[in-house]
Amino acid sequence: MDFLVLFLFYLASVLMGLVLICICSKTHCSKGLVKGGAQIFSYIIPECLQRAMHRLLHYLFHTRNHSFIVLHLVLQGMVYTEYTWELFGYCQELEFSLYYLLLPYLLLIVNLFSFILTCVTNPGIITKANELLFLHVYEFDEVMFLKNVRCSTCDLRKPARSKHCSVCNWCVHRFDHHCVWVNNCIGAWNIRYFLIYLLTLTASAATVAIVSTAFLVHLVVMSDLYQETYIDDFGRLHIMDTVFLIQYLFLTFPRIVFMLGFVVVLSFLLGGYLCFAVYLAATNQTTNEWHRGDRAWCWRCPLVAWCPSAEPQIHQNIHSHGLWSNLQEIFLPAFPYHERKKQE
Ligand SMILES: [Zn+2]
Ligand SMILES: [Zn+2]
């Protein structure tokens, strides 16, 4: 029983930690938290270990490498191996519909296909040859993106909505973010594959979670486990309650219950991120713009009056042309803005 409580506490802590990181990453308190955390660690951990950790973190998050791709495939492989090896057979014995059981495999095929495309597709790298073309795709809003600005690293003129990726060391057209899970930038030319990848990954995690839950519920109902009794450490007789039932299932099907816990947490995290990505696509914003737009909002707050150097600037999303047009821009290549104006 203690193990179950600790396990649930661990899952809740991981989930809460991730939610807190997501919330803090949008606020300025994250910098303070990171600084404070680093200071505490510097007192506890030996210097040589700190240097090794710093090197490892730098390698993982600030250089192009395949570590997260390997981790991604290992985790996905483990879930699907468990699904095929145990759950699929059990569900077939319980006469679950075969279409229902094959759905995760169909999602896996689409997911792997879009994953590969996201990894290998050029996100919209700006070069000397295409610099001029990209300069005419989006209008400059003169708040977030200014005309005639050069990238200090590439020395290329920066088109509106572009950004230099410090990990890949190139400027990307309609830069969204650098994704370590696909080891590539997400930009104008691969955002559509990324969205399909995210959608199918969420759907496959949710489908495996639903099948696992359906199997366990079916098993409990079929074998009338709720009617059973058990004797506790003090010799008292009890009717099976929910907590004891979960513990019983965990001990009988440890791999399936562990996988269920993992895919449930994953479904919520990916589902939340998918909603955010769909919101950005529907409003024609990139993650980079959403993040920078928050700072533009800060300049407009009442505290601006106390800061003589701050200039109140209002960022307005000038690229949104309605839901259909915004989605079209994700799934079809964008036109230079003067051509788009002619079309409208
Ligand atoms: Zn650059
Ligand atoms: Zn990148």
From TrEMBL:
Top-rank taxon: Eukaryota
GO cellular component, one term: Golgi membrane
EC number: 2.3.1.225
Membrane topology category: Multi-pass membrane protein
UniProt keywords, alphabetically: Acyltransferase, Cell membrane, Endoplasmic reticulum, Golgi apparatus, Lipoprotein, Membrane, Palmitate, Transferase, Transmembrane, Transmembrane helix
Cellular compartment(s): Cell membrane; Endoplasmic reticulum membrane; Golgi apparatus membrane
InterPro entries: Palmitoyltrfase_DHHC, PFA4/ZDH16/20/ERF2-like
Major location (coarse): membrane
GO molecular function annotations of the record: protein-cysteine S-palmitoyltransferase activity
Entry keyword annotation includes Endoplasmic reticulum: yes
Segments traversing the membrane: 6-25, 59-79, 99-120, 194-221, 256-282
Coiled-coil region: none
Boundaries of every Palmitoyltransferase DHHC domain copy: 150-291
Catalysed transformations (reactions): L-cysteinyl-[protein] + hexadecanoyl-CoA = S-hexadecanoyl-L-cysteinyl-[protein] + CoA
Keyword match DNA repair: no
Enzyme class, spelled out: transferase
GO biological process: cytoplasmic pattern recognition receptor signaling pathway; negative regulation of cell migration; positive regulation of cell migration; protein localization to plasma membrane; protein targeting to membrane
Family membership noted in the UniProt record: Belongs to the DHHC palmitoyltransferase family.
Note on domains (UniProt): The DHHC domain is required for palmitoyltransferase activity.
Entry-linked PANTHER family: PALMITOYLTRANSFERASE ZDHHC4, ZINC FINGER DHHC DOMAIN CONTAINING PROTEIN
The protein's name: Palmitoyltransferase
Native source species: Callithrix jacchus (White-tufted-ear marmoset)
Record lineage: Eukaryota, Metazoa, Chordata, Craniata, Vertebrata
Chain's gene name: ZDHHC4
